[in-house]
Fold each of these.
Amino acid sequence: MSEIAKGLDNDLTNYGDQDFARYLRRSFAKSMGYTSESLDKPIVGICYTDSGFNNCHRHFPEMLEAVKRGVLASGALPIPFPMISLGEVFLSPTSMVYRNLMAMAVEEMIRAQPMDTVVLMGGCDKTVPALVMGAVSAGKPGVLLVAGPMMTGRYKGERLGACTDCRRFWAQYRAGNISQQEIYQIEGNLAVTSGTCAVMGTASSMALIAETLGVMLPNTASIPAVHADRLRASEQTGVLAAKMAIQGGPRLDQLISKDSVENALRVLLSVSGSTNAIIHLSAIAGRAGIEVDLERFNELSDETPVLVDLKPVGSGYMEDFHTAGGLDKVLRALAPQLTLKTLDVTGRSLEQRLQEESSEQIDQNVIRTLQNPVESKGGLIALHGTLAPEGAILKRAAATPTLLEHEGRAVVFSSLEDLAARIDSPELDVEAEDVLVLQNAGPRSPSGMPEAGYLPIPKKLAKAGVKDMVRISDARMSGTAFGTIVLHVTPEADLGGPLALVQNGDLIRLSASAKTIDLLVSPAELEIRKSTLLPAPTPPSRGYRKLYNDSILSAPQGCDFNFLVPG
Ligand code: FES
């Protein structure tokens, strides 16, 4: 045992007699067949999120063995422990509701159980932010290991990747362009391996953000899930975790700084990453006492070019991104705009990392240079205005250019149920130039801020060939989706924000160049409408949903719980 590591003596159970607690713990540990020699080693806990309800983590048993191999070979004892897993499409009403539950469980189980450091295994959308948020608050050394992206499938000679292509084909099916039999065949070819969604969605964005924050081994964020390098990265993560256990650091909260958060925001902008990632990064930063300011975000967006040509915005998939050099290439291209003194889990600065020789850039079309960007400005912007006084988010890179400056008549849906009931009605009064508005789908709403901001194009317009409209809500959007979609409108409708006051026929103006979103209704009229607003639905009275409802913060605050943020 090193002088720093305490191994099994970490955080002894309180019986009022420390020696008894140590004796009892060792005795029960021995019932699992450990020798005294093993129990005298530093301990690497492995926070393990395998689940039959999480397809993205299907290969975790193999990765776990590789992590353990690395830990054992480096003189520490690996002890896996189960953790809540959040499989994106298996949770109702939405995985977002459970991110904070998982973050709380991660924090408490790292703190409560005897370990000197922790390997955090995750990947599917909400698991990475939950793991990092919890570990930052737990204040123990830790390192993240992600699942890696899925490989693409094939259908009639075309490459398919979950889940941008899922949406494209579904839109064609709704428009009557492909048959039910075809959509069944496509269903079996969209997600064909383990790993996270194959495009620059939330999981991939969060993996790149985590590596940029320094909480993961360099060059590991985008290794495909099924590649042998993924297992080698797992073993190396185990080796590093053992070293961290023996040396006593670094802790994740020491790596999350204002500079590393700004670097991560720049990477997010340059890869045209997921809008969800802004919420998650705000929550991670918030755990370290750092605020993500939307005005500053817009400054960064105006300076940071889009360098990556991947779906849902462009044409490539994550496997192409990795082959083209992965995050390392992006960091090298962005280096003049980054703060290079930030540190990572290996103890090196970003500057030291980038001084190492890089592999040859194979595909200049997938990852471009500062001199030859995909777009000269970042893929995401924050909007403010009379409809969103505290902010909203638009993925301008995923929008139809002609809709970025648009004024239109509101067609309002008061809830997800209302949307489902009327969106395809032949009687719906809607034109292609209208603005679709969804209310009461924000963090405090009963739906828990689902990825419903990608409102479907009304069937009669879809059949007429309409592919995009301005759509506005307090909901989120899947990182794999695209369109002219304004999200995270704050204050949300459930709290009586201006979004709750929009009525059919109101004019709404979006200006991406001015970064504004305005409801063109007089303040006097809005005051009258406010006085007649119906009360919000009765909040949950028990259990986690009550805690959630009582404590959830707004989207710009990362949708964390108010009592989990320092201060
Ligand atoms: Fe797990 Fe997309 S469903 S990352």
Amino acid sequence: MQTITILGATGSIGCSTLDVIARHPDKYRVFAVTGNTQLERLMSQAKACSARYVVVADENHYVRAQELASAMNVPAQILCGAQALDHVASAPEVDAVMAAIVGAAGLLPTLAAVKAGKRVMLANKEALVMSGALFMDAARQCNATILPIDSEHNAIFQCLPADFKYGSLEQSGISSILLTGSGGPFRERPLESFADISVEEACCHPNWSMGRKITVDSATMMNKGLEFIEACWLFGTSADQVKVVIHPQSTIHSMVQYVDGSVIAQMGNPDMRTPIAYGLAYPERVDAGVEALDFMTVGSLTFDQPCHDRYPNLQLAIDACRDGQAATTRLNAANEVAVAAFLNKEIAFTDIARVNSETLNQLEPITVSTLQQILEQDTLARDKASALIRGLR
Ligand code: NDP
């Protein structure tokens, strides 16, 4: 029996995680669920999975959360704030943590789980993009196991040799990692109309059902850029060893190419319960509730190169990956601010890349290594991006 904390339980990944867990009451029990604004959903989840703790990230919602818990007869203990998130991520009773808070807000509780030596199922890619070396060093020093949940990285993990060691691509006979991406909803849309893309259009992914921030990131392909950086940190590769391949059907979730000409791909229906179930059960397998891939109906699988004019954010992220930690932290922060402004209908779709690129251009290159320096760069880039957005209004 594994005891699990779900950070970001109310989100898309959190709900899918609870769905998989509910299928295996003999294998998993929930220690804590956390959320931020969706309090009713959080309380229903806590009741349904008999969680011991509920954590509301925003302290301003504590009183309302307690009222709801008592009205809904939720027996869990209700906590709030950053310290409580760290507590449920690192408590001795916890075996594994699903890190599924969106954005930089997930960094500190995910790091708390890493430092407590937990098995960390990492969906929150932004945490790794912000703090790559620090995060991976902490995992090594504290014996944490990092299991990638992002479907692409989970696929790569499944395609690597079982004895693969961080950074040992050449020794393992691997020539490159092929990171696939659908290209999002605007793969064929005329470039001249990109400035008119509405929030509703950007929030409609052709293959995957996800939270709003990652859905917009998929439309700009910043998501693939963040995944590019994530892949380099997770597997210890250089930027030259990762290649992005457009694969509109999202049937292949990524591939590993070997020096002998072999390519190993992981395939399946686009349903996040597959990588989640893999993370929960690793190294075993459990039923995820996902339908088997039916090759008689899959149809053609196609592949293409990414067009960087269409997806300027992808190139920005690849460049930032080469530039180092300060650049990736700043890019992630600027992008979170720009996407939030787009979702609030304050800026155009095309302004997202503009704000990201200008933020990077206007900040001097520096080297960062400590958590404090990383958090400072995050704040600096958020302030810069916000100022740029005010200038665009
Ligand atoms: P959602 O937006 O659906 O959910 C985000 C979760 O984070 C919610 O539980 C939300 O709480 C919580 N949250 C938001 N802001 C804060 C905050 N400031 N402090 C604490 N908690 C907060 O996102 P997704 O589930 O789509 O994505 C989660 C992560 O997983 C992201 O990093 C994403 O990139 C990654 N991922 C997602 C995939 C997907 O298919 N969805 C695929 C691969 C990776 P509330 O809702 O209560 O406000």
